[in-house]
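Design job #97: recover the sequence.
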């Protein structure tokens, strides 16, 4: 006669097997061939949302109807084949409505005394929070990569010997290259310098000097797709660690072709951001009140490089470095006087000792277990070597990204200031008409430079506080106009915080610059006094920007897109901002621009 499988009795807490299964940090269940639950430990019940007792005798479809379609075929496969299934990722809704969970599961057959499959053992680790955190990290990395790839700059990251590690998208697209065409190669051997041996030698020499800590900056030319070439303001900056050693080189280039023609184009940005997540296996050891090892699992064997029979009966201090052993008896006695479970959040980080004498960092959780033989302690030991290494790598990458973005915006701001100075010098020898055109270009360059200055100062590279930007810009415009003796007052009213990303902040800044500058130039002819008002507020349709004056008003024959260059730019900038423009005529002129902000600027 075939006998059934032997099951732990959950009503008898004094059996050692029941104690171990109940204290495991993973979910454990035993099911019969009809997929009815015969045993469930507390960890699995916590994950499913159903009390252990409410599982017993119930089928999988009854207890977990939302997850059963994913789990049942796997269990049936084990029953039919008699072969285990391990490393399965299953997902489904727990007994709590809308509470979707994910598990890493191992399913193994249980056989009776005749070797026939008489049930199933399911070991399930709830990985919902871990996978959600991993997805969030991947999304964060995707967003950061998107920000860098959409910045108008040529940026890379090199090792000190000049090997390319990363490069952002604009220079690749401009030259018709792929990332694999350049990563892993020496910078001067990439396709950007394919038509210029002299430039290759110059880049190689600059790399050697930058590796010694010297900032390199000069103008050069890049080879682009279709045999085109473009001139860039090239910088190769060393990146130092806390000890002053050069760890990386940051090449950056700004297209100066337009600058030579009178206007500037800016390019900068790059980052290297890596994340490694690894799950270390857990070890379990049960000890008595004197610290004698009663039970270990395979995880302990793998972790400490001992065989099971080498540990059973020995004191747990054999797994501790020498420096912990003197204090351990007192700590053990204190724990036994007031035993209490310590969850993962309260676990103390220690170092453990392998059989070969090497140490490794661990987290240890202690769970008291009462038995007829006295108090027992189940220790859960987690090797956190990889986790600590991953944490250090993430912290290094975050610091590297922050330093890189700060360098990008600081250098963009400085380069724009250089352009502004060049325009000012050029205007000294220009005609009156040219001088006015150069002054307008200089004002636009300053408006863009102010955006990068704010990003650099606030250390927030994802968005620009438009209210703060308006205060700075209006003060700058007012100071500029007062130098020319304009008897016009400029008033600013910012009622709400409004934020924009860099891609929309630049056209927004240029739009405000054009509207205010045009008001100064055209609304008050012949030295007429007046008032210009700039307002920013949030309404039901989004952000509302108003630039108005009490001047002579617009001529009736001027519509959007007509008139001076500045007035022609206004509808183009509104379109880049993704907004709507309305012009109100009457006692003066009011330009009303509505657009959608990105979020709270605070």
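Job complete. Output follows.
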């Amino acid at each position: 006669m075939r006998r059934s499988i032997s099951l732990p009795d959950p009503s008898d807490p004094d059996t050692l097997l029941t104690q171990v299964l109940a204290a495991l940090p993973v979910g454990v269940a035993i099911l019969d061939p009809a997929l009815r639950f015969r045993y469930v430990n507390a960890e699995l019940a916590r994950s499913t949302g159903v009390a252990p007792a409410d599982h017993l005798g119930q089928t999988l479809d009854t207890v977990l109807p939302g997850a059963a379609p994913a789990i049942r075929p796997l269990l049936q496969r084990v029953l039919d084949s008699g072969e285990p299934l391990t490393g399965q990722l299953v997902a489904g809704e727990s007994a709590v409505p809308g509470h979707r969970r994910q598990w890493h599961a191992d399913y193994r057959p249980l056989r009776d005394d005749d070797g026939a499959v008489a049930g199933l053992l399911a070991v399930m680790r709830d990985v919902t929070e871990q996978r959600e955190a991993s997805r969030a990290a991947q999304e964060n990395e995707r967003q950061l990569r998107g920000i860098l790839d959409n910045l108008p700059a040529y940026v890379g990251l090199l090792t000190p010997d000049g090997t390319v590690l990363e490069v952002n998208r604009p220079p690749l697209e401009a030259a018709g290259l792929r990332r694999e065409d350049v990563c892993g190669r020496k910078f001067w051997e990439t396709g950007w310098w394919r038509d210029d041996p002299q430039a290759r030698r110059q880049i190689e020499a600059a790399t050697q000097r930058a590796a010694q800590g010297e900032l390199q900056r000069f103008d050069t030319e890049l080879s682009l797709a279709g045999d085109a070439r473009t001139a860039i303001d090239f910088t190769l900056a060393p990146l130092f660690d806390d000890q002053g050693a050069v760890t990386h080189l940051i090449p950056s280039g700004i297209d100066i072709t337009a600058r030579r023609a009178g206007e500037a184009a800016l390019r900068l940005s790059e980052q290297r951001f890596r994340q490694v997540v690894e799950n270390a296996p857990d070890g379990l050891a049960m000890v008595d009140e004197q610290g004698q090892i009663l039970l270990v699992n395979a995880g302990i064997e793998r972790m400490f490089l001992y065989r099971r029979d080498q540990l059973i009966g020995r004191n747990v201090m054999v797994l501790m470095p020498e420096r912990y052993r003197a204090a351990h008896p007192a700590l053990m006695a204190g724990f036994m006087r007031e035993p209490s479970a310590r969850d993962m959040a309260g676990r103390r980080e220690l170092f453990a000792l392998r059989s070969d004498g090497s140490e490794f960092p661990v987290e240890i959780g202690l769970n008291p277990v009462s038995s007829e033989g006295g108090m027992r302690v189940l220790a859960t030991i987690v090797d956190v070597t990889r986790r600590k290494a991953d944490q250090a790598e993430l912290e290094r990458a975050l610091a590297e990204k922050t330093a890189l973005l700060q360098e990008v915006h600081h250098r963009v701001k400085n380069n724009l200031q250089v352009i502004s100075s060049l325009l000012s010098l050029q205007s000294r020898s220009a005609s009156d008409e040219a001088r006015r055109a150069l002054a307008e270009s200089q004002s636009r360059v300053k408006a863009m430079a102010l955006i990068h200055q704010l990003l650099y100062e606030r250390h927030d590279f994802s968005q620009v506080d438009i209210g703060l930007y308006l205060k700075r810009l209006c003060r700058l415009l007012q100071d500029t106009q007062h130098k020319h003796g304009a008897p016009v007052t400029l008033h600013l009213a910012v009622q709400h915080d409004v934020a924009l990303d860099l891609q929309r902040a630049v056209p927004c800044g240029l739009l405000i610059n054009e509207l205010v500058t045009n008001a100064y130039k055209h609304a008050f002819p012949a030295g007429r006094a007046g008032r210009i008002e700039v307002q920013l507020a949030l309404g039901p349709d989004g952000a509302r920007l108003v630039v108005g004056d009490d001047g002579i008003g617009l001529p009736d024959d001027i519509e959007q897109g007509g008139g001076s260059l500045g007035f022609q730019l206004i509808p183009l900038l509104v379109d880049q901002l993704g907004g709507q423009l309305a012009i109100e005529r009457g006692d003066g002129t009011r330009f009303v621009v509505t657009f959608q902000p990105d979020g709270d600027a605070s």
